[in-house]
Amino acid sequence: MPSYTPPLRDMQFVMHEVFKVADEYKAMPAYAEVDADTINAVLEEGGKFASEVTFPLNISGDEEGCRLDRETHEVATPKGFKEAYAKFIEGGWPALSCDPEFGGQGLPIVVSQAFYEMLNAANQAWTMYPGLTSGAYAALRAHGTPEQKKTYLPKLVSGEWTGTMCLTEPHCGTDLGLLRTKAEPQADGTYRITGNKIFISAGEHDFVPNIVHLVLARLPDAPKGSKGISLFVVPKYNVNPDGSLGARNGIHCGGLEHKMGIHGNATAQLVLDGAVGTLVGEPNKGLQAMFVMMNAARVGVGMQSLGLTEVAYQNALAYAKDRIQMRSLSGPKAKDKPADPIIVHPDVRKMLLTAKAYAEGGRALALWSALLIDRELHHPDEKVRKESAELVALLTPIVKAFITDNGWIATSSCLQVFGGHGYIKEWGMEQFVRDARINMIYEGTNTIQSLDLLGRKVLGNQGATLKKFGKLVAQLVEDEGVNEKMAEFINPIALLGEQMTKFTTEIGFKGFQNPDEVGAAAVDYLRVAGHLVFGYLFARMAQVSLREIAAGNTDPFYKAKLQTARFYFARLFPETATLMRTARSGARVLLDTDEALA
Predict the structure, then answer these.
(1) Region of residue 235 (left: phi > 0; alpha: psi -120 to 50; beta: else)
(2) What pTM, to 2 d.p., does this model score?
(3) Most exposed of 146, 268, 311, 569 (fewest Cβ within 10 Å)?
């Protein structure tokens, strides 16, 4: 059976020693009283909830899955899931970073981000039920009418109701301009919505009495394509004026998807048959409103793979220390045993360190992104808010795609450490791999994230936001450029930072002549950008660690951090050279292939 220990020490290092979040929050009136002790206490309790309440249900939930009653259209979740959610509500966890105006606790996004990493490591399938509710809350808070906010937000914040987002239809996924779900206006100001949605995570379940669906649909006179999409809030049960539940609405679960992973989450096929909904935001501008939820979900998926990377690493490390096989090539290390633990073998260490580096780099990126969101929403300086929002937009596709790509690499490597035991179910590793593979696909495939990064976030503003990130790298290089002990961390990012400017300009010029060149380069480009961001963050973590060691701190944590950073720059970061070469190979070798693909 696998185990899980919340990585609180590393979280505290990133938050308090690298980013100094408590000092940051002193400048934000909403968080001015949030200190390091408060953050640590909350996350310590959150870690207990994840490891003690939801983690024990992970394997059993995967084995049992969800069950649909086709007569009532109700879904039963795996044994223990509903009870765990009741404890989740009892502990006040749904309200963690929500607005106190609607019953939230008003804590920073950094805190909820760290908490959700632990929940995802413990049980991704379970965590997706409350996770999507957070996105529904964010979308309604940003674009809902006063009446919608009054009706839905307190219930979503308390966890009494949950939320979903309903985009995909059988004939369209990423290309939402093709969707056919119709919304017919009614005399009372509501709409009757008819259509079919698929792949709706947590679309039906037995946790709560009501589920709040955010549904994309078309008005009768809507323009064709994505410019004719509106957003509606469609509850499972209609809500009376006094807040009580009324009649069952015309939306039900017609089937559950049979998936390779996340079996404990009900991925529903939803049928809307004249369901009553109300318009969110302006007509035909539903995508803008839904993007609030979609971006939250994309960051959330990155957190899912970050959690899986961490838990897979922990179990592979423990196994490698215990499992004995062969002798070290340089001579016996465990002379009292018939063979050495496999952790002595270089390639086993490479696999372990790959997972460790991707977990620690991903954690730093996730928490930095969360801090930037806190700045965007709450900093009193408009310039800081604007620049933070721009960086968040740049980093969001990297959080989603780079962390999930790395999660697939890391969980696969950790399974490999187990050898034949890796694909035996009782060890838990094969489940981590199956779940991680899904994360690269939903909430916009990683190719879509790459096109978003290169086409929209970089070339869309002539690299202006990328240059702002480049200034952060340049400042770190300037600060530490003469420090010999930092050279192994600074020199690689200084070189790549310079190369990135030329690389981006070259791809942009080719794309101007032929847009397919952007599509051909985008996936490789995102990984290069991801490594530049990880490299910057690992250099900052190394900077702090070296300072602590120089000051006489003997905590082995700092030496371990330096060793991980050295491995990352020596073994993973150099991938950028190959990626830039393949990206530059152009579109012709991909598109001039009709005979090869005949």
Answers:
(1) beta
(2) 0.98
(3) 146
Quick one: how far is CA 32 from the chain centroid? 27
Residue 541 predicted with pLDDT over 80: yes
pLDDT above 90 (res 336): yes
Of all residues in the chain, the percent with pLDDT exceeding 90 is 95
Cα–Cα distance, 211 to 207 (Å, whole number): 9
Angle at 524 between CA 523 and CA 526, to 5 degrees: 65
Structure confidence at residue 292 (pLDDT) = 78
Tokens of 286: 């539903």
What's the pLDDT score for residue 478?
97
Cα-Cα-Cα-Cα torsion 340, 345, 349, 351, nearest 10 degrees, comes to -110
Q: From the candidates 24, 443, 480, 548, which is the catalytic residue? A: 443
Q: What pLDDT is stored for residue 481 in this prediction?
A: 87
Mean pLDDT of 285-311: 89
Cα separation of 281 and 276, whole Å?
16
pLDDT tens-place string over residues 376-397: 999 999 999 999 999 999 999 9
Q: Cβ distance 320 to 343 under 8 Å? A: yes
Cα–Cα distance measured from residue 227 to residue 286, given in angstroms and rounded to the nearest whole number = 9
Closest CA to 58 of 28, 81, 85: 81
Q: Report strand pairing: 162-166 vs 211-217.
A: parallel
Number of neighbours of residue 431 by Cβ within 10 angstroms: 25
Q: Which three-class secondary structure state does DSSP give residue 107? A: coil
The secondary structure of 544-573 as a DSSP string is HHHHHHHTT---HHHHHHHHHHHHIIIIIT
> What gap in Å lies between CA 565 and CA 80, rounded to an integer?
40
What is the Cα–Cα distance from 363 to 541, expressed in whole angstroms? 12
> Dihedrals φ, ψ of 96, to 5°?
-45, -60
Copy the structure tokens of residue 216: 């994309």
Place of tokens 């985009």: 167
Q: How many CB atoms lie within 10 A of CB 69?
A: 10
pLDDT in tens, 291-303: 777 788 889 999 9
Structure tokens, 560: 């371990």
Using alpha carbons only, give the angle 320, 324, 330 rounded to the nearest 5 degrees: 90
Q: Is there a catalytic annotation at residue 443?
A: yes
Structure confidence at residue 486 as a pLDDT band (50, 70, 90): very high
273 pLDDT above the threshold of 80:
yes
Does the pLDDT at position 218 exceed 90?
Answer: yes
Which CA distances in Å does 151 have to 154, 204, 287?
7, 20, 22
Q: For residue 218, give the 3-state DSSP assignment.
A: strand
Nearest to 300, CA basis, from 357, 366, 236, 345: 366
Summary mean pLDDT of the chain:
96
Cα-to-chain-centroid distance, residue 14: 18
Count of alpha carbons within 13 angstroms of residue 125, beta-carbon side: 31
